[in-house]
Design a protein that fits this description.
- By secondary structure, this protein is α/β, with parallel strands linked by helices.
- The protein contains 15 helices and twelve strands.
- The protein has helices at 11-22, 36-42, 66-69, 90-93, 95-98, 120-128, 179-195, 206-227, 231-235, 238-258, 261-264, 270-278, 288-294, 301-314, 320-340, and strands spanning 2-7, 26-31, 44-48, 52-57, 61-63, 76-79, 108-112, 135-141, 144-147, 152-155, 160-165, 200-202.
- Helix 1 (11-22) links the parallel strand 1 and strand 2.
- Helix 8 crosses helix 15.
- The chain is globular and about 55 Å long.
- The structure holds NADP nicotinamide-adenine-dinucleotide phosphate (NAP).
Length: 341
């Protein structure tokens, strides 16, 4: 049995923790926050097209805080909380676990979160400490939500998880990075997830997969959020539909300037039309950024938009439309963060 720690037991966390539990190869320790009492007392109901239905499911262990989870070593530490570094960085959240790692640890981190550059602060920490611990990075193509006050998680339609290992950038000290260990951990995680009934897809370049995903998030999610509208409502307004394509074109330019040539070639111009045409014009879908705003929760602005802009600045690619979007969302985010205090 392998021990896996999951930090962030929301919609994504629950689906993948449940899959790992079903694999019968894993004991999951779930760090819950606001849903601790609900899960520890009643368990979770899952209604999923992919992994089926269950009621009152509890992971092997439910704890309230990362400190409590740091009483043992883990094969994998999975982060499935929203990525909002404006509140807490990943190394800060994982502090009690990170402080127990040694150069011999066989642990890997797994980031199941949207965004660009979300691995950077954790990788910097690991480098500084001289640790070879690999970071696996995952892009979830899934639609899942925690509902009913966190008592139920629903998942409708298909599911796919592009998984790869993060390669430290050329600007970082990569002397401790062990590609062999990273590959071995990636294989092991994919096997366990596969036995649990989900669809992990190992990819050669996870950054390319992340850029492909952020094309949607940085355009549809942001414009739906700023206009407080569904995907269908945005597509129904020609100037808004045009703006979506123009923002995607900016993100695409940054992606191509950032990625190695081979990976950049996987993102041709036609990808923009493909993504837009794939949407149902009558879609009533609200991106999670908008849902967070409607609930007064901080949004993943830095991870999704700020991350693209940092890379744009590094490669000197202009992004005037995305800059404007970032400015608007940052004002809203400031209000959300102040309201939280
Ligand atoms: N849901 C989807 O369909 C989907 C699809 C693709 C990608 N994603 C990405 O997956 C990630 C997770 O999204 P989600 O939809 O699963 O979010 P979610 O349902 O809001 O769940 C996040 C969970 O993390 C917990 N959490 C936040 N900070 C924490 C901390 N410091 N320590 C412990 N727990 C913490 C939250 O607890 P509280 O309730 O206390 O805040 C919540 O239970 C995001 O990056 C999202 O963009 C989601």
């Amino acid at each position: 049995m392998e021990d896996v720690c999951l930090v962030g037991f929301g919609a994504i966390g629950a689906i993948y923790a449940y899959a790992l539990d079903r694999s019968s190869k894993v004991r999951v320790t779930a760090v819950c926050r606001s849903n601790y009492s609900t899960i520890s007392e009643n368990g979770l109901e899952i209604i999923s097209d992919k992994v089926g239905r269950c009621s009152s499911w509890k992971p092997y262990r439910v704890v309230r805080a990362v400190e409590e989870a740091a009483d043992r070593t883990y094969s994998f530490i999975i982060c499935a909380m929203k990525c909002v570094p404006e509140i807490l960085s990943t190394p800060t959240i994982l502090g009690p676990i990170l402080s127990k790692l040694t150069p011999d640890s066989e642990t890997a981190f797994v980031l199941l979160q949207n965004g660009i550059g979300i691995e950077d602060d954790l990788q910097t920490y690991l480098n500084k400490k001289g640790l070879k611990t690999p970071i696996l990075s995952g892009c979830c193509w899934i639609d899942t939500t925690a509902v009913n006050g966190g008592k139920t998680v629903t998942q409708y339609g298909t599911e796919r998880l592009a998984l790869g290992y993060h390669v430290p950038s050329v600007h970082e000290d990569s002397s401790n990075f062990s590609e062999n260990l990273a590959k071995q951990k990636l294989d092991s995680l994919c096997n366990m997830l596969h036995s649990g009934g989900v669809t992990p897809e190992p990819v050669d370049d996870i950054d390319a997969a992340r850029w492909r995903k952020v094309l949607w998030n940085a355009s549809f999610s942001t414009i739906c959020t700023l206009s407080r509208s569904t995907v269908g409502d945005v597509l129904a307004v020609p100037s808004a539909k045009l703006a979506i394509a123009q923002v995607m074109a900016e993100v695409l330019s940054v992606a191509r300037a950032t990625l190695p040539e081979k990976a950049a070639a996987t993102l041709p111009d036609t990808v923009i039309k493909q993504i837009i045409d794939h949407e149902n014009p009558g879609s009533t879908f609200k991106p999670s950024m908008l849902v967070d705003l409607e609930h007064g929760r901080p949004m993943e602005v830095e991870a999704i938009v700020g991350g693209v802009l940092k890379r744009a600045s590094a490669v000197a690619v202009p992004t005037p439309r995305l800059d404007l979007i970032y400015a608007g969302l940052s004002v809203i985010q400031k209000g959300l963060l102040e309201h939280r205090q």
